[in-house]
Amino acid sequence: MTVSPLRRALTVLAVATFTVAAAPAVAAAEPDPKALTWTVQPATASGPDERRWINASLDPGKVVTEHLAVRNFSRNAVVFSLKAADGYLTDKGRFNMLSSDRPSVDGGTWIDVQERVTVGPDETKVVPFTITVPKDATPGDHPAGIAATVTSTGGTVNVESRVGFRVMVRVNGSVRAALPIQGLTTTYTPSWNPFAAGTARVRYTVVNDGNVWVSGTSRVAVSDLLGVTDHDATSAVEELLPGGSRQVETRADGVWALGRLRTTVTTSPALLGDGQAGADLRPVTATVTTWVVPWAQLGLLCLLVVLLIGARAAARHRRRRLAGLLDRARQEGRQEGQESVLVGGAPSRAEPDPDDARR
């Protein structure tokens, strides 16, 4: 049976190495995981199929048989341990399953598979396993994983290497999904150019408090004091398992914040896995108000006020100076006029009176 490199990449969904404390042991003929290459993927009784993982929608109390295929690409036969455990998403959004030193309490305990399988060199073996849903199982998704592992012993630690895939078990019943928003904050960084807008950084945590596996969309709207929206964008919310959470940060450029800055985030969930009619999908909205001091614009306003006051003071000074000059000119004009009257209008020498001559 030939498996292409692309198919190998698609079917190997979870690879993890764990180190756990153990009692000192003598190294035996245990295989070195670094020298081994193997894949594990969903299968039918006749061999591997095209599924990347297993989705099973079951009623409480239902039992279903599935299959997995283990292929050994090594040159020697290898004994693989087969293990199932509860599944979860890492901080980076990758699916993983609990390590062997952590007990499973949910979907991982519903999977029953044989403990070991021996696979020859370049051989593929199909192994059946069963999924048994408890009668009192709660509706919704119960993620798990199943893997083929190899453990090597050296010194005082055991190193477990495993390859596997996810098993998503959905218990039929009432399905609800919502993505509430927690810790919503907005931080505004203004531009020191008063004629340029600033940047708003919106941070929040999206929590899946429903009972199903979902993704969704997130809409962020940032509006100013007058209610004008400066930024309105929609982004994707990556997959979240029930009870999971994810931190989200959105950067909004070109935002004018002149006092109050109002940020509204709305999330809308979307079901993943097998769809189910009648699912209760609830959008959630959260709002936060941030008060921002527009220092650059206030500085420009203060500068304009100072310039205006200075211009008015200078204008008043010029008017007063001009008025003073005009008053001085008027006074000088009046003084010159008075001097001209005194000089031009002085009494002349009196001529002799004829009567005086006759006397």
Structural description of this entry:
This is DUF916 domain-containing protein. Keywords: Membrane, Signal, Transmembrane, Transmembrane helix. This protein is 17% helix and 48% strand. Strand 16 and strand 17 form a beta hairpin. The radius of gyration is 44 Å and the shape is rod-shaped. By secondary structure, it is α+β, with helices and mostly antiparallel strands. It has three helices and 21 strands. It has two domains: 167 residues, Immunoglobulin-like; 122 residues, Immunoglobulin-like (Sandwich).
CATH architecture title of the largest domain: Sandwich
| CATH homologous superfamily label of the largest domain | Immunoglobulins
Q: Report the helical percentage.
A: 10-25%
CATH class of the largest domain: Mainly Beta
Tally of separate domains: 2
Q: Which word captures the global form?
A: rod-shaped
Ranges with pLDDT <50 over ≥5 residues? 1-29
For the record, give the distance between the C-alpha atoms at the N and C termini, rounded to a whole number: 172 Å
Strand fraction equals over 45%
Describe the largest sheet.
7 strands, mixed
Output mean pLDDT.
81
CATH fold-level assignment of the largest domain: Immunoglobulin-like
Note the run of SSEs as H and E: HEEEEEEEEEEEEEEEEEEEEEHH
User: Helical element count?
Assistant: 3
For this entry, give a set of tags.
359 residues, Immunoglobulin-like, 2 domains, 3 helices, signal, membrane
Summarize the structure.
The chain is α+β, with helices and mostly antiparallel strands.
Secondary-structure blueprint of this entry?
Elements: H1 5-11, E1 14-21, E2 38-44, E3 47-48, E4 54-58, E5 63-72, E6 78-89, E7 95-97, E8 111-113, E9 116-119, E10 123-132, E11 140-154, E12 157-171, E13 176-178, E14 181-189, E15 198-207, E16 214-223, E17 229-240, E18 245-255, E19 259-271, E20 280-282, E21 284-292, H2 295-344, H3 354-358
Parallel strand pairs: 4-12, 13-20
Antiparallel strand pairs: 1-12, 2-3, 2-5, 5-10, 6-7, 6-9, 6-11, 8-10, 11-12, 14-15, 15-18, 16-17, 16-19, 19-21
